[in-house]
């Protein structure tokens, strides 16, 4: 009873705007050298709650992998001692996560008079107002439709960007994982760049004349709102479909592609919980339905995540190469070359399972198996220095270079795909 009361209090305090703090939490980086070190990190995660930033769960760790995780303030000393006793080298990426959270903002964080800005992180209220404004400002190029509602009944707005009626289309989504803030920032940047340079930049003009871009600025809206109001480190959506104490399904494990097999969990408390069934989540369902209804026109699917600087393509759920692997690899290479040409940012590319780690129920595999042969997942900047807490001054360079990759893939679709 006491426990229930306590839970009740926590729930009430969360709902009235309690924001979780991360004072003196640390983020550590390790690179397990062999199986025994891998097992040791997995063992640590079984005795202490570690928040894995990269990879997204302990299960995915293999030798020589870059592993970043957040440790609660009260456990940091223990964990560091245990690592040292076991001869494991580690690096401290954040001494104080709370400070990192505050430092990602230029100027004052969270101040309510911050206007929508492409080089800042915008709250959902600002993004939703922006979707209406940009459609109103460029009626010939942008229109807004609703493809569904989220668990918490927020409208899921999709922007259709392009001149005239629907032609060959590219579907772009951002923000499947709530805490990866650079991702929604990119979707907004993309729409702005497209509208602003139409009629001025030759390539963009051609792309918008001959292609349609469907842009979903935030897929996991409830989770994104939660990262602003309650818990900056939230990843999943906010549904309680498991009817347990644990909230949230990992939407990038909820698509109907080898659902809930490899690299995902049926434990509702896990960060990679696959949900009670494939497409059980309203957000997944809305996206999958939209894509199915428009499958004839959608030629490419691009999904944006962070972090680790990778451009990935199917498959995630198997190490087997996709039937069109060679072409995907060529397209990825060209896109990465274009991206790197601006600031020399290094990207890895390749099939997800072997390049990052195997997962199932991911959106890119699902889209590919539905027949969208050009299906890519971006893991944007950085490679761990700031991780999910990429400072606002890096939004611009990150988005600029990513634009080059997206334009490169789009040109390929325009030229070679019928
Ligand atoms: Zn992600």
UniProtKB/TrEMBL annotation:
Pfam families from the UniProt entry: Peptidase_M14, Propep_M14
Lineage per the UniProt record: Eukaryota, Metazoa, Chordata, Craniata, Vertebrata
UniProt-annotated catalytic positions: 379
Needed co-factor(s): Zn(2+)
Keyword Cytoplasm: no
Name of protein: Mast cell carboxypeptidase A-like
Gene Ontology molecular-function annotations: metallocarboxypeptidase activity; zinc ion binding
Annotated GO CC locations: extracellular space
Residues annotated as domain Peptidase M14: 120-413
Gene Ontology biological process terms from the UniProt entry: proteolysis
Entry similarity comment: Belongs to the peptidase M14 family.
Gene3D superfamilies (alphabetical): Metallocarboxypeptidase-like, Zn peptidases
Domain of life of the organism encoding this protein: Eukaryota
Record keywords, A-Z: Carboxypeptidase, Disulfide bond, Hydrolase, Metal-binding, Metalloprotease, Protease, Signal, Zinc
Signal peptide residue numbers: 1-19
């Amino acid at each position: 009873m006491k426990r229930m009361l306590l839970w009740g209090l926590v729930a009430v305090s969360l709902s009235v705007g309690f924001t979780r703090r991360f004072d003196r939490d640390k983020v550590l980086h390790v690179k397990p050298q062999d199986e025994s070190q891998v097992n040791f990190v997995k063992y640590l995660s079984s005795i202490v709650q570690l928040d894995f930033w990269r990879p997204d769960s302990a299960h995915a760790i293999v030798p020589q992998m870059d592993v970043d995780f957040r440790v609660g303030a009260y456990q940091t000393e223990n964990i560091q001692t245990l690592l040292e006793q076991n001869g494991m080298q580690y690096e401290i990426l954040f001494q104080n996560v709370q400070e990192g959270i505050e430092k990602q903002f230029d100027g004052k964080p969270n101040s309510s008079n911050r206007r929508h800005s492409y080089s800042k992180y915008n709250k959902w209220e600002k993004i939703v107002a922006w979707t209406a404004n940009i459609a109103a400002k460029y009626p010939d190029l942008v229109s807004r439709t609703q493809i569904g509602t989220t668990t918490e009944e927020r409208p899921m707005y999709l922007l259709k960007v392009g001149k005239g009626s629907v032609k060959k289309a590219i579907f772009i989504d951002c923000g499947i994982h709530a805490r990866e803030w650079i991702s929604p920032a990119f979707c907004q940047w993309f729409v702005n760049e497209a509208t602003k340079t139409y009629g001025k930049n030759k390539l963009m003009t051609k792309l918008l004349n001959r292609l349609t871009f469907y842009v979903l600025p935030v897929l996991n809206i409830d989770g994104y709102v939660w990262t602003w109001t309650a818990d900056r480190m939230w990843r999943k959506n906010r549904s309680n479909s498991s009817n347990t104490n644990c909230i949230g399904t990992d939407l990038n494990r909820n698509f109907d592609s080898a659902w809930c097999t490899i690299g995902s969990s049926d434990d509702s408390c896990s960060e990679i919980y696959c949900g009670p069934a494939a497409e059980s989540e309203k957000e997944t369902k809305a996206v999958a339905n939209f894509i199915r209804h428009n499958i004839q026109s959608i030629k490419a699917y691009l999904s944006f995540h962070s972090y680790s600087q990778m451009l990935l393509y199917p498959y995630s759920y198997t190490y087997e190469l996709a039937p069109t692997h060679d072409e995907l690899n060529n397209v990825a290479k060209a896109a990465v070359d274009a991206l790197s040409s601006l600031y020399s940012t290094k990207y890895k590319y390749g099939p997800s399972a072997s390049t990052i780690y195997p997962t199932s129920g991911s959106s890119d595999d699902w889209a590919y198996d539905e027949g969208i042969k050009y299906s890519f997942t971006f893991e944007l900047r950085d490679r761990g220095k700031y991780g999910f807490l990429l400072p606002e001054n890096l939004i611009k360079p990150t988005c600029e270079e990513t634009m080059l990759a997206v334009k490169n893939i789009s040109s390929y679709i325009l030229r070679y795909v019928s």
